[in-house]
Amino acid sequence: MKKIFLFFIFFYASGFSQAIHQNEVDLFSPANIKKFADYLYCSGDYLRAALEYEKYFSADPNDTVKFKIATAYSKIGKYSKASALFDSFHENSKFFPFARMEFFETLFEEKNYPELRDSISNAGLSNGFIFKEQAKKIYYFSYLYSNESLPSKSDFLSNFSGPDLNQIKYFYDWKNNPPYKSPLLAALFSAVIPGSGKLYAGEIADGVTALLATASLGYLSYTDFKAGHYFRGWLFGGLAAGFYAGNIYGSAAAAQIYNVKIQFDFENSLKVFINSKNCFVPEINFCK
Q: Which of 100, 103, 105 is nearest to 279 (CA)?
């Protein structure tokens, strides 16, 4: 009886072990790996999605999975990996035009504007390219980020239309003639009228304070000298001279700070705009 009991225990244990083993095999099958990768991708976990897709790709290499891997790497800022994958798509692939546009975007994100324009000129502006108009927008928009001379305004704006045109005009005019303040001019203004350079640089309160402080100290120095109080005259005169010189320097610095701020605001506006347009790149929704 004891032997029969042990036999049944062994039999059920063996069956249970085989079931676990079978589940493990199913869990790591290519089909399940792909399902898991799709789940991660659509959940926004792009790094792990890319790693899982790469496992699946080794078993079943195809353009759909390769495009997802490249897109996942692009989403997390690994542009070098993404760029190489997007650039590897053959012209016969149904993903080729989308991959080209994504390739252009990776170059744009890497700030590699010369190569971006060369690549678009060589492949993105041909009449047979279905996203030619979008490629031209990236091509011209890149000039707003670089230090190169802008194309003519008519050529530049001809690539944009609709409600975005006014915003593009603003970007072009700002880049072509940035509204900077001259540090030299700010210093000269304050040398003539203390505080006026700060007013020119947009620092109203500091400008008024500098004018009142310098004028007050100068007046106190004048009245003390006139009354024969030479020590106090020299003391207030020295303070007035210090405020005067410091205000000249501060006005030049204020103009430089003003320029940095508006440059930052301009670049932030460009970033918000281009992100809202997805860099003019048509997106494939794999998570419908």
A: 105
For residue 190 the two structure tokens come to 């304050």
Neighbours of 273 (CB within 10 A): 16
Tokens (6 digits) for 181 = 């303040």
Residue 24: CB atoms within 10 Å = 10
Q: What pLDDT is recorded for position 269? A: 94
24-138 classified as CATH 1.25.40.10: yes
Cα 183 versus chain centre, distance: 28
* Every domain of the chain and the residues it spans: 24-138, 147-177, 183-273
**Tens of pLDDT, residues 13-31:** 455 445 444 444 566 788 8
Contact yes or no for 137/160 (Cβ under 8 A)? yes
Report helix, strand or coil for 2.
helix
**Are the CB atoms for 97 and 64 separated by under 8 Å?**
no
